[in-house]
Design goal:
Blueprint lengths: L1 H10 L4 H9 L3 H19 L2 E4 L1 E6 L25 H13 L4 E6 L7 H14 L4 E5 L5 H10 L3 E3 L7 H7 L6 H13 L3 E8 L6 H14 L3 E6 L16 H14 L9 H6 L3 H6 L5 E2 L6 H4 L15 H14 L3 E3 L11
Parallel strand pairs: 1-8, 1-9, 2-3, 3-4, 4-5, 5-6, 6-7
Helix pairs in contact: 1-3, 3-10, 4-5, 5-6
The structure holds 5'-deoxyadenosine (5AD) and FE2/S2 (inorganic) cluster.
FE2/S2 (inorganic) cluster binds next to α14.
């Protein structure tokens, strides 16, 4: 089965049947070779650099009702908050001092953050930190909204597609949401010149190997600059409270496969991966990941951005989280890159 790893490494692609064998192979030699090849491929483009993204969780209000998510509208137990302009700017100020050159503003779909409010914040960050990249992760919005925020100075947008197979997408989301709209948002963002991130959860309830292959095919079609994947982790106040979570092994397998399919992509070792295993992010870095996203949100709101149970980094100050990740990066044999960290070869 190791020959499939070599084939994926040289051709960058496999047939559906081969992909299925590679995803499900239990042979430990496959996992080991995939890690080695994924690391070689990331080092060819990015060396040992790991890019830092300062994550600012701006709101836990959300009009959506995704079945897996702890901040879904129906979760009446969720403790909601939103940051105001000054709080967001002060996160950027401490983040800049800590060496971050990308700020990610992520939040639920909160009507408070209208285009006017967002554009005002984005242009102020752009003015104060011309050397930084501004990334948004605010869910589905209109083309006009995406365009205005791009014009105000945003560079990148993260919007996981969550599931490219219609049956799985519909079992994870309420009827009010559609896969078609999700995909359209991603294509629109690309057209507008954003560096775009898509992705999905590993081990989501009902997810089969065929569903995962559909996700890989969609990513091949979209050709995003960033791909975010992490294990599904159940949240106690959602309909999926009793479901099993995604595994470390399958997440690492897919990270390695993604690195071989998309040699230049920006691939984060996610917080969810660090949540299911104390060494999850380090193992991710060794299996092709080249991005980590330390939490820059004010400590008093962190526990409220409660997407899934036992989320890590909720008690630490920004500086502590930054240093903790730096130690982890160095212990895994990599180095922190103090730069914007754009996707290699990206031209807008
Ligand atoms: N487990 C893991 N990841 C989750 N997300 C939302 N809920 C969960 C969960 N229970 C992910 C989604 C979303 C991102 C911000 O967090 O994929 O796009
Ligand atoms: Fe946030 Fe370790 S990375 S506390």
């Amino acid at each position: 089965m190791t020959e499939l790893v070599e084939k994926l490494c040289s051709a960058g692609n496999l047939s559906d049947e081969e992909m299925k064998l590679l995803i499900t192979a239990e042979d430990t030699a496959v996992a080991e070779l995939l890690r080695i090849r994924a690391d070689e491929v990331r080092q060819r483009t990015y060396g040992k650099k790991v890019f830092l993204r300062g994550l600012i969780e701006i709101s836990s209000y959300c009009r959506n009702d995704c079945l897996y998510c702890g901040i879904r509208r129906s979760n009446k137990d969720a403790d909601r908050y939103r940051l105001d302009r000054d709080m967001i700017l002060s996160c950027c100020e401490s983040g800049y001092a800590l060496g971050f050159r990308t700020f990610v503003m992520q939040g639920g779909e909160d009507a408070y953050f209208s285009d006017d409010v967002m554009c005002d914040i984005i242009s102020e960050i752009r003015r104060k930190y011309p050397d930084c990249a501004i990334t948004l992760s605010l869910g589905e919005r209109s083309r006009d909204s995406y365009r205005r925020m791009k014009d105000a100075g945003a560079d990148r947008y993260l919007l996981r597609h969550e599931a490219a197979a219609p049956d799985l997408y519909h079992s994870l989301h309420p009827d009010s949401m559609s896969l078609e709209n999700r995909k359209n948002c991603l294509y629109t963002l690309k057209e507008l010149g954003y560096q775009v991130g898509a992705g999905f959860m590993v081990g989501a309830p009902g997810q089969t190997t065929e569903h995962i292959i559909a996700d890989l095919r969609f990513l091949q079609e979209l050709q995003p600059q960033m791909i975010g994947i992490g294990p599904f982790v159940p949240h106690h106040s959602t309909p999926f409270a009793e479901e099993k979570g995604g595994t470390l092994e399958l997440t690492l397998r897919l990270l390695g496969i993604l690195r071989l399919m998309f040699p230049k992509v920006l691939l984060p070792a996610t917080t969810a991966l660090g949540t299911i295993s104390p060494t999850g992010r380090e193992q991710g870095l060794k299996t092709g990941c080249n991005v980590v996203m330390p939490n820059l949100s004010p400590v008093d709101v962190r526990k409220k951005y409660d997407l899934y149970d036992n989320k890590i980094c909720t008690g630490e100050e920004a500086a502590e989280c930054r240093m903790c990740l730096q130690r982890r990066i160095v212990s895994a044999g990599y180095e922190v890159a103090a730069e914007r960290g754009d996707c290699a070869g990206f031209t807008s």
